[in-house]
Amino acid sequence: MLTQSVVARAAIPLTLDDVFASPSLFGTPPSAPKWAPDSRSFAFTWNDKGLPDRGLWLSSADGKQLRQIPLPDTSTSLRDFVWRGDGQSLLVLQGGELWQIATSDGSAEHLGILGDGVSTLTMAPDGRQLAFLKGGDLWIFDLEKKTLRPLSDLGIPPLSNLTIGRYNRAEREIGPGIWGGPTYAWSPDSKRIAVHLVDRQSMRKVPFPDYLAAETTPNEIRRGYPGDANESRQVGIIDLSDGRLERLPLEKPDARQVIGFSWSGKGVLLLDIASDTAEDRWLYRVDEQNELILVWHSNRPSRIYTAFASAWHSDNERIVFLSDLDNRYGLYQINAFTPEEFPKRISNANTDVLSAPHVTTSGEIFYTANLPSPAERHVLRIGANGGPPEQLTRLPGYNSAHPSPDGAQLAFIHSEASLPPEIYTLTAPGQVSHRVTHSPSERFEKQDWARSRYVSFPSHIDDYTLHARILEPPNLEPGKKYPVLFGPMYSNTVRNRWSGRYSRIQQLLVQKGYIVVQVDMRGSTGYGRDFREEFLVDFAGDDIEDIVSAVDYLKSQPHMDIERMGIWGSSYGGTLSIYTLLKKPGLFRAGVAAAAAVDPHFFGTDDVAIVRRPDTHPEVFLNTAARYAENLEDHLLIIHGMQDQVVPFKTTAALADLLIKKGKDFDFAFAPGATHSWSREAHYSRYLFGKMLTHFDRYLLPEAAASK
């Protein structure tokens, strides 16, 4: 399969400055559409000039009428918005100010001051009250009386004064878990709210020193390691009549996560629970006495990850949920009141469902699945009366579904390997989709972007067929050998999609003269359950052998200079990069390992879904990078942010010290204030990607061919 979205000749070659320029050459991607309750229009945030400040935009349901809604206060940024129940106006949060804006003429009314730190606005079903989170508590704004009141009093601020880092969260709050989860949900009668209660006060305190303060401070946060008790996650129900909070009797809240919860149209609460190890999954309904009634339970010791989701069907009887009961992820349904022994699969058995189900008021079910290959993702629909799923989107690439409440229209976000995300609409199956947004600049349209090839080859250690994506110049010079870069390494990378800043860097690398390769190693979805679960308790193991298999394949391909190959990645991609250099010396000439997890003892409590715990699988925790440090012979650059709370900087510092003691030559680039998400932090990203490019150019470009 060969895709090339843009074929016009490049006017000006890309530079690293272009990747980070503002306005952006690549545009500002639109946010997910939010539909009006009447399904006649949808709104989203966007900047059509490629600037970071977002405005509010309104589109007709068919996407053919698009206009920007003027904001009342141009001195503060747009933070959130929700529709009013009549579909004629929007509630807009700018800074700490709440405004109501009419969609007809843009007239604005100031409603009140909500203050700083507001998030997660939702409208009550009766349209009279607005709820939001602030300071770890749930608040209510009465839209008729224009009064504000807290509905809970349990929020405790975080230990750290810094506002950065994944684990820098409130000591106690109504909100998501560290790695996600629900926040709160209105009952259909607007009289109760289900809330997600998270308490981290029993987790260990871990210092992440702040070297940028006036004096070095410990900067303690709550962070667990494998084997520790996790944050406590519970579900409660708040009665709005008296403010009383009742906690539901969930077992082992420090070892089980709340995947989600939702109310049926008749006011029955559904709970979706999974163990942190991912081995167990439970669906409960809550009766009138707030007791839990088990609907379904699944256990599989080999399960990894928690790609789960659930929703009520519009008939208020059935539950539609995403699970991995068969070889492929699928959508299943089960009656919540008279459950069958085994749920019924309603999606195709030969594809993986890769999104939560969207159930419309008319009973239609929208979802995305990887077809016709794992590289693509398309939107499908199951009719209100059941039957086989129907594919709706046809544009090759990645498509995510945002159906209207009545299911009559579909807005979707589409991207390809050479096209950043854009909003499209589709009003009927078989019709040509309509593009709503045009984000990139004119110069983007003139570029000659890399072409993508998708290839397969055998594993050299077993019977699996492996898959890779190759990005190369659109016009390869006959007889020329190009240096090859593997990366960014990670699972699920052989995809026809735009991956933000990583895609920008890949395009720059190809224009600089590299061929870029990515491999779907074991652990990736799209190839069956066995291949996905091969990754369990085997990090930096057989997945590295999949990289070796890819190198073996490239030896048979023209234009590949296998004597000048590099590998790079961040997070687990950094882990793969550094372990590959250490376990397979000489396979690559150079590597860049960013934010690499090199010691499983310092993994997070969420990683038990991959490595389990030291008391149950002690052998896994012997697999440290230090164990192979003596093997380093290739050119290694280590990148790490000193405020990385996911992969502590301490672990990289310890490995670097060991390499120095062993007399190894390597390079080290760090950023004092960068977090685990360094590639999303513009100034750190520009600096560290610059170091990476310099490293590879030094050792892999033609003039470096003789210096190994």
Automatic annotation (TrEMBL):
<protein>
    <submittedName>
        <fullName>Prolyl oligopeptidase family serine peptidase</fullName>
    </submittedName>
</protein>
<dbReference type="Pfam" id="PF00326">
    <property type="entry name" value="Peptidase_S9"/>
</dbReference>
<dbReference type="InterPro" id="IPR029058">
    <property type="entry name" value="AB_hydrolase_fold"/>
</dbReference>
<dbReference type="Pfam" id="PF00930">
    <property type="entry name" value="DPPIV_N"/>
</dbReference>
<feature type="domain" description="Dipeptidylpeptidase IV N-terminal">
    <location>
        <begin position="97"/>
        <end position="421"/>
    </location>
</feature>
<dbReference type="InterPro" id="IPR002469">
    <property type="entry name" value="Peptidase_S9B_N"/>
</dbReference>
<dbReference type="InterPro" id="IPR001375">
    <property type="entry name" value="Peptidase_S9_cat"/>
</dbReference>
<dbReference type="InterPro" id="IPR050278">
    <property type="entry name" value="Serine_Prot_S9B/DPPIV"/>
</dbReference>
<feature type="domain" description="Peptidase S9 prolyl oligopeptidase catalytic">
    <location>
        <begin position="502"/>
        <end position="700"/>
    </location>
</feature>
